[in-house]
């Protein structure tokens, strides 16, 4: 079986918005996940708090499950290649774009990558809620960059009054409509938005370094809990057409979806694995195990209308058990490597 592709999460934002602070927060709250980090320079990353085990040219290997490397955009693909090698055992790669990098270029590089071991994990745009209006008058493109975001993080809420916060929120909603928006400070968002924790038994008890890392991060605890997850299961197959419609008109606030789909196909290899982030959709297929087939989805976001999402998914159930092969063909355009995966 092919290995799961590793999600690559891009963190963008203007100078000083709080990108490194968010990255450090994720490192301190990684819940057993091994994080590969790509930054432009190590300067601000809390490397010493994470027990450096060894350093190889531009890559720092951290004792407790983090690989950190520094590259500019031209070296990104090569670095993603190194981080996604199976022996690195990485669960998620986080790329922190420099405050002056053009996020569109970074996104293009990521989407165009032919590396079969990675997949797009979303673009989180960090916005300095206190300074955004001022920065935007000098750099009007800042608002435009929000159009690329799959998640908007309004950071430094502690420094912005209600008025300023409301203004930035309005701009974000105008340039990134329907995109989940989190208001926070010191990057304290729930890491489960970006990656799945490893079950405790696979990484054992907290090590001394983990505890020490936590101590070093004053803001690591007390996560802001605006993150929501909705679980949907169905023993009835879903109609591929209806589900495609759901995917292509995703509910406001939805950031990512993962799970297994039963689309009513007669093919034994029709267990579809689904990963979406923002409007990016990827399906893979495998054989169903013996036993009943089920759709099981987890939807993650902020500001989701739980009842409406569940209602829409329930309405995706097929009316009967006649396979809709034509409908299936339409959704299969999202299949990962359709030519080689059979
Ligand atoms: N008051 C306050 N300060 C914050 C917050 N988030 C980050 N900071 C501080 O703001 C400064 C800039 O944060 P960074 O995380 O380095 O910002 P950055 O986006 O990585 O900056 P560049 O790498 O220069 O683009 C640091 O001094 C942080 O401690 C916040 O929510 N509230």
In summary, what is this structure?
This protein has 342 residues and is an alpha/beta fold.
User: Could you estimate the helical fraction of the residues in percent?
Assistant: 25-40%
Strand order of the biggest β-sheet = 3-4-5-2-6-1-7-8-9
Ligand kinds: guanosine-5'-triphosphate
CATH class of the largest domain: Alpha Beta
Coarse shape: globular
Q: How many separate domains?
A: 2
Q: Considering the protein shown, what is the CATH homologous superfamily of the largest domain?
A: P-loop containing nucleotide triphosphate hydrolases
What does the radius of gyration come to? Answer: 20 Å
Low-confidence stretches: 48-58, 61-66, 204-221, 338-342
Structural class: alpha/beta
CATH architectural arrangement of the largest domain: 3-Layer(aba) Sandwich
CATH topology (level 3) name of the largest domain = Rossmann fold
Please indicate the percent range of residues in DSSP E strands (runs of 2 or more): 25-35%
Q: What is the first-to-last residue Cα distance?
A: 12 Å
- Element string (H = helix, E = strand): EHEEEEHEHEHHEHEHHEHEEEEHH
Average pLDDT metric: 82
Count, helices: 11
Protein name: GTP-binding protein
Family: Belongs to the SIMIBI class G3E GTPase family. ZNG1 subfamily.
Keywords: Chaperone, Hydrolase, Nucleotide-binding
Pfam families: cobW (PF02492), CobW_C (PF07683)
